[in-house]
Design brief:
This protein has 267 residues and is α/β, with parallel strands linked by helices. The protein has helices at 4-25, 39-56, 65-70, 87-90, 94-97, 113-123, 138-142, 150-166, 189-192, 195-212, 219-223, 243-261; strands spanning 81-85, 103-107, 131-135, 170-174, 215-217. Strands 2-1-3-4-5 form a five-stranded parallel beta sheet, with helices on both faces. The radius of gyration is 28 Å and the shape is globular.
Length: 267
């Protein structure tokens, strides 16, 4: 195509152009920005990470085994209370919000009422409390340990309360907290925990407490906004209360405990 001196001059330039485009073609293609995981994807990831633990110890009785063994029996006149629940209880620093109170935390992150029922004897009854404050249900609605109906959740609630009454432990049942999607961290929280299911479960629980003479602790009404969601300023991730959230919850819990213990004679 090219001849003579011109060919000698153009060939190095052509080689350089070919090398340049050859190198360009070998560059990795730019990656698309990763999408945030959906609630279903996060749940599946959590289940996979917990698979061995769920198979070996579904109720996670091992979590508080040593602490329970080390806990001394209540002294005369002590009004011990166990806070029993999931992550919302687990991360609650009771000693900061209830200084000097003989309150024992037995929350375990991620748990459902089925798991809590399995460990109720070890983590509540055998600690000989005067009362138990139970906060559960949100992980059932989310399907943490598999699909479950509201009726099945309600059955677990009732069975736990029956066990408590059989051992003279007063029951405070907390409402399921509202959730929100106001922050990026919250993701699709309303899909994971549909507000209508939370409202329905809370209504059943309120009615059950009235019939079974338990105390109903209504966190929901104090933390919900005019859209039926958790107030944005009370939870960064749409689910777990921050310090402001626990500041609202603490006096409500204290009042409910006093109401429950007012029916019991201190031994």
């Amino acid at each position: 195509m090219f001849h003579g001196p011109f060919r000698e001059r153009i060939q190095p330039l052509l080689a350089a152009v070919v090398l340049c485009f050859s190198g360009f073609g070998q560059q990795p293609a730019p990656q698309a920005a990763s999408k945030p995981m959906t609630g279903a994807e996060r749940l599946e990831q959590w289940r996979m990470s917990e698979e061995r633990a769920l198979l070996d110890d579904f109720g996670n009785l091992a979590r508080y085994g040593d602490a329970n063994a080390a806990l001394k029996p209540p002294v005369a006149g002590e009004r011990r209370v166990v806070f029993f629940g999931d992550s919302i209880t687990d991360v609650w620093k009771l000693e900061e919000f209830f200084p000097g109170k003989p309150y024992v935390n037995r929350g375990i992150s991620g748990q459902t009422t089925a798991q809590m029922l399995l460990r109720f004897r070890a983590d509540v009854i055998e600690l000989h409390p005067k009362a138990v404050v139970i906060l559960a249900g949100t992980n059932d609605i989310a399907g943490n340990t598999g699909p479950v109906t509201l009726e099945q959740i309600e059955g677990n609630y009732a069975t736990i309360a029956e066990l408590a009454r059989a051992h003279d432990v007063k029951v405070v049942y907390s409402s399921v907290l509202p959730v929100h999607e106001y922050t990026e961290k919250a993701g699709d929280m309303l899909t994971q925990r549909p507000p209508e299911k939370i409202v329905a479960l809370n209504q059943w629980l309120k009615n059950y407490c009235a019939a079974a003479k338990c105390v109903y602790l209504d966190y929901f009404a104090a933390m919900v906004d005019d859209k039926g969601r958790m107030k944005k300023e009370l939870a960064e991730d749409g689910l777990h209360p921050n310090a402001a959230g626990y500041t609202i919850m603490a006096p409500l819990a204290e009042a409910a405990i006093e109401k429950a213990l007012g029916r019991a004679k201190v031994k």
